[in-house]
Write a structure and sequence with these properties.
single chain, alpha/beta, globular
Length: 196
């Protein structure tokens, strides 16, 4: 398959999408809410105001739950208009707020709008933590992904870290990073959207 240009929205400036020749990168400074096509997208909209810890984010920083400045809505609109895939943490409140169908079971499921939803665990792609993730894709037929994960999250450390989980021992940047193998799977989904 010949690589085709995709747009990576809401990504880190020096993250795993940087320096890829067939990726039009939209980092924070570029503001992906202004993306106007024409390429299929891989969207990673900010999740802090939608995730399970959104209440903590609101209490600490005063950022109201769900008030993301329209980033999730813009990412969803871009995926629906140009094809591609959007990823967000599993059980994100953004799904219900934007009338998306929550994934159930293993594998891809159709939603009411003609898209596809699923849940994957990024540990299957090399992340040190489970990092369960929901995907919403608009593509002709999404490819099979790695659906498995370990029975339980690994526990590491000794001394003062005894009993700490992998997530607690990771930096914020490492927790939010996308593994290269997962990035490649998302790019493949977006490139397949050309046939939608």
């Amino acid at each position: 398959m010949i690589p085709q240009m995709i747009a990576a929205l809401y990504v880190q400036k020096r993250g795993c999408y940087s320096k890829l020749p067939d990726v039009d990168m939209w980092d924070e400074a570029r503001d992906a809410r202004g993306y106007a096509g024409p390429h299929p997208v891989v969207a990673h909209p900010p999740c802090a105001r939608w995730c399970k810890l959104a209440g903590l984010v609101e209490a600490r920083g005063g950022h109201k739950r769900g008030d993301d400045g329209g980033t999730f809505a813009a990412a969803l609109a871009a995926v629906r208009r140009y094809g591609g895939v959007l990823e967000h943490p599993a059980h994100t409140r953004a799904w219900a707020a934007h009338d998306l169908t929550a994934p159930r079971g293993v594998g891809w499921q159709r939603d009411l709008w003609g898209g596809w939803v699923c849940e994957v665990s990024q540990v299957a792609y090399g992340h040190r933590a489970r990092k369960r993730t929901w995907l919403y894709a608009v593509t002709a037929a999404p490819p099979a992904l790695l659906w498995g994960e370990p029975e339980h999250e690994a526990v590491v450390g000794n001394g003062r870290n005894r009993g700490s989980t992998v997530v607690e021992l990771m930096s914020a940047r490492e927790r939010s990073a996308t593994p290269v193998d997962f990035r490649d799977a998302l790019i493949a989904i977006a490139q397949g959207a050309r046939n939608t």
